[in-house]
């Protein structure tokens, strides 16, 4: 087990980074793997056939967070262009934000839309606190979906739907829980017919999801905290699944982090903020499997899947995925890790 980030690096050709969603969500390719058989490939299919690899009594857990239109464009009274990126609310009509523009000091007024204004109230390095003239829903109407920086285009009307999962219900994320983007109502119905149950948690994906690990020693990295909640119904379903011999399968790394933040404590911690950093050497408390996309090099997500599947195994699987021209990152293909 290496403590150095360079040992987890993977090279992803730029042309394999998906810039657009596929015409159909469930047409994404699915690479099926097993921890017990690693690094052998169990199967290759599409997400439309996911249920074939699951068993009656299994439980899939999804993140029901909804991506907010966090990217706002405006102008100062002097005419200078400004971009404001909503990070998290801190009071009614008040948000912690990232800003882009010149001389955005406390007291600066920014005109965003018809009757929508912001005043910069505090500044702390790259971060600021902005107070807005309208409530959140009116503010969101002025914003755009914040696509990740590796998608080299502006967000358009397609992204309003496709960068949200079919489970999205609770506003708060600034990035999508991308593993769930492959799921459709037809897939969920197929799971139900097979006897696979589903549940949800909420973890509002934060700004840290875009940030690489910059320290060469992994243990020197500090995670950004994110808000999560595990409802009572999900707690009951997880407990019942484990009693009956089913498998708890997290759909996405955000679900892994929420469930492990909850079940990794005694007594159970069902909500609040979590900065859990799952990396090689971590002992998983509750999950048996995982659905996940292919992740950014040098990210905490690569470290998380390496903790679950093994560093060398992940290296081999990513090399295979590159050789077979899988699509990478948010709008790309995915993997199913089984026990």
Automatic annotation (TrEMBL):
Listed InterPro entries: QueA, QueA_dom1, QueA_dom2, QueA_sf
The pathway this protein participates in, as annotated, is:
tRNA modification; tRNA-queuosine biosynthesis
Q: What is its EC number?
A: 2.4.99.17
What superkingdom heads the lineage?
Bacteria
Q: Which GO terms describe its molecular function?
A: S-adenosylmethionine:tRNA ribosyltransferase-isomerase activity
What are its GO cellular component terms?
A: cytoplasm
Swiss-Prot/TrEMBL catalytic activity: 7-aminomethyl-7-carbaguanosine(34) in tRNA + S-adenosyl-L-methionine = epoxyqueuosine(34) in tRNA + adenine + L-methionine + 2 H(+)
The cross-references to Pfam families, in alphabetical order and at most eight, read:
Queuosine_synth (PF02547)
Q: Which UniProt keywords apply?
A: Cytoplasm, Isomerase, Queuosine biosynthesis, S-adenosyl-L-methionine, Transferase
Chief subcellular site?
cytoplasm
Cellular compartments annotated? Cytoplasm
What are the GO BP annotations of this UniProt entry? tRNA queuosine(34) biosynthetic process
Q: What class of enzyme is it?
A: transferase
Family assignment? Answer: Belongs to the QueA family.
Function noted in UniProt: Transfers and isomerizes the ribose moiety from AdoMet to the 7-aminomethyl group of 7-deazaguanine (preQ1-tRNA) to give epoxyqueuosine (oQ-tRNA).
| PANTHER family assigned | S-ADENOSYLMETHIONINE:TRNA RIBOSYLTRANSFERASE-ISOMERASE (PTHR30307:SF0)
Q: What assembly does the database describe for this protein?
A: Monomer.
Q: Which HAMAP family match?
A: QueA
* Designated name of the protein: S-adenosylmethionine:tRNA ribosyltransferase-isomerase
Q: What is the lineage of its organism?
A: Bacteria, Pseudomonadati, Chrysiogenota, Chrysiogenia, Chrysiogenales
């Amino acid at each position: 087990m290496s403590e150095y980030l360079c040992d987890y690096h993977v090279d992803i050709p730029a042309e394999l980074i998906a810039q657009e969603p596929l015409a159909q969500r469930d047409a994404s390719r699915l690479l099926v793997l097993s921890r017990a058989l690693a690094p052998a490939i169990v199967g290759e299919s599409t997400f439309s056939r996911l249920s074939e690899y699951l068993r009656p009594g299994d439980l899939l857990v999804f993140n029901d967070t909804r991506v907010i239109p966090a990217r706002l464009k405006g102008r100062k009274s002097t005419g200078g262009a400004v971009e404001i990126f909503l990070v998290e609310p801190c009071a009614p009509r008040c948000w912690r934000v990232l800003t882009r523009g010149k001389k955005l000091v406390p007291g600066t007024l920014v005109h965003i839309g018809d009757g929508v204004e912001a005043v910069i109230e505090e500044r702390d390095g790259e971060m600021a606190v902005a107070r807005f003239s309208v409530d959140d829903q009116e503010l969101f109407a002025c914003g755009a979906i914040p696509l990740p920086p590796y998608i080299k285009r502006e967000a358009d009307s397609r992204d309003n739907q496709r960068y949200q999962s079919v489970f999205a219900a609770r506003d708060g994320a600034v990035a999508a829980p991308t593993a769930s983007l492959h799921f459709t109502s037809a897939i969920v119905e197929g799971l139900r017919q097979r006897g696979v149950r589903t549940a949800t948690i909420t973890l509002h994906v934060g700004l840290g999801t875009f940030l690489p690990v910059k320290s060469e020693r992994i243990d020197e990295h500090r995670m950004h905290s994110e808000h999560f909640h595990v409802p009572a119904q999900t707690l009951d379903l997880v407990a019942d699944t484990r009693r009956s011999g089913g498998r708890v399968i997290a759909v996405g790394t955000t679900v892994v982090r929420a469930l492990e933040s909850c079940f990794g404590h005694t007594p159970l911690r069902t909500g609040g903020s979590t900065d859990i950093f799952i990396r090689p050497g971590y002992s998983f408390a509750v999950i048996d499997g995982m659905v996940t996309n292919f992740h950014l090099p040098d990210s905490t997500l690569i470290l998380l899947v390496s903790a679950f599947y093994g560093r060398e195994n992940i290296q081999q699987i990513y090399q295979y995925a590159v050789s077979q021209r899988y699509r990478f990152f948010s709008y790309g293909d995915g993997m199913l890790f089984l026990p």
